[in-house]
Amino acid sequence: MLTSTDGEARRGEFHTPHGVVQTPAFMPVGTQGAVKALRHDDLEALGVEIILGNTYHLYLRPGHERIAALGGLHQFIGWDRPILTDSGGYQVFSLADRRTISEEGADFQSHLDGSRHLLTPERAVDIQAHLGADIAMAFDECLAYPATHEAAADSMRRSLRWAVRCRRRFEEVRGGASSGVLATNPGQALFGIIQGGLYQDLRDESAEGTVALGFEGYAIGGLSVGEPNELMYQVTEATTRHLPAEQPRYLMGTGTPLDLVESVARGIDMFDCVMPTRHARNGQLFTSRGRVNIKNAKYADDDGPLDPACGCYTCQRHSRAYLRHLYMAGEMTASALNTLHNLTFYLDTMRGIRDAIAFRNFEIFRQEFVRSASAPSCD
Ligand SMILES: [Zn+2]
Questions:
Q1: 161 touches 141 (CB < 8 A)
Q2: How far is CA 225 from the centre of its chain?
Q3: Which of 15, 52, 105, 231 has its CA 20 to 30 A from that of 332?
């Protein structure tokens, strides 16, 4: 539901069985049912309203049937706010030489024990029904970048055929017509995914075909795969025009804080990315004055806060010198403190975006953000 718009930027909220999510929203990635280095109460204190879980990992370990028997993913991990699960497709396609793709689905070898598995559109829906996230994703083919028009067209059309199968299976499970599926969240939604590489004619075709299937929301997949930013923005802008105004739009796997602002300007409502959490563990920190590489020797004697403009626990309590020391010593606390800060930066950015849209001054917010993001980094 949209509450206000400013240009193409949209402020809204969507309702799930586990509560409301304010959009535009950023979803921290909790691959194994945990956002690395943080406890759930840290996330709650940061105001995180939705997290993402990875179906591929949870299916292999501890297993979707076990999670369903333990009451579903929310119950199992002890998180009662919304969750989105991906379809597992992205990880399977990343296995490169450990998988083969056919019309039926993807045959792959587990990275854990080498066992073989077949992931089909129906199976991806069933597994996610067991997990019971509030939002499940359609199983699609993830195309390598760069790809020819022909390869991108074939792949996009296969994803569309798979989307039909996902939707059909989802309706069967929801209607109770699928024996053997222990659906743990009757209010689950299913989002379709638009593919087509960087070819706008294919994106148009994919968007029209996907929207015709009637999903609860729509994602743009296959971007943020190494293409120039400007191309990603162009495709995003042209693709969101095909999407129904009233339903959430999710740009998968993006991106830097600047990418979030620029994509909101092109009509996107939801994001996920490992960047803030992974960068935190590598000592790469986002601040209002540019990026900080905390390993840098110049911070060894710096008693100032990481980001004077940040209200997070890390910045309120500790100095750059201490954060550098913990990082250099390989202390686990370094990951926790750094992740807390980077996620605060992302969530504050989203809050700033939402307020700016509500007050109809998003364009000013955006210009200021671009200016500070393109300032030389602190290093
Ligand atoms: Zn901070």
A1: no
A2: 14
A3: 52
pLDDT at 376 over 70: no
Please confirm whether the linkage preceding 24 is cis (ω < 30° from 0). Answer: yes
Centroid of ligand 1 to alpha carbon of 283 (angstroms): 13
If one compares 378 and 257, the residue with the highest pLDDT of the two is: 257
Q: Which two tokens stand for residue 26?
A: 């950023």
Q: Please, which residues have CB within 8 angstroms of residue 322's CB and are 6 or more apart in sequence?
A: none
Distance 286 CA to ligand 1 centre (A): 9
- Reported in sequence order, the residue ranges of the chain that DSSP labels E, i.e. its strands, are 2-6, 9-16, 19-23, 25-27, 51-53, 83-85, 99-101, 106-109, 116-119, 135-137, 189-194, 217-220, 249-251, 270-272, 284-287, 290-293
Backbone torsion region of residue 22, taken as left when φ is above 0, otherwise alpha when ψ lies between -120 and 50, otherwise beta: beta
* 204-223: average pLDDT: 98
Query: Could you tell me the distance, in angstroms and rounded to a whole number, from the CA of residue 310 to the centre of ligand 1?
Result: 5
Task: Calculate how far, in angstroms, residue 317's C-alpha sits from the geometric centre of ligand 1.
Answer: 9
Supply the mean pLDDT for the chain: 96
Catalytic residues: 86, 272
Place of tokens 């495709």: 235
H helices present in 175-294, as ranges: 200-211, 229-240, 257-264, 275-281
Confidence of residue 148 (pLDDT cuts 50, 70, 90): very high
For the cut 70, the answer to whether the pLDDT of residue 378 exceeds it is no
pLDDT at 372: 87
How far does the centroid of ligand 1 lie from the alpha carbon of residue 292, in Å?
Answer: 12
User: Token pair 């066992």 is at which residue?
Assistant: 115
Phi, psi of 249 (to 5 degrees): -125, 125
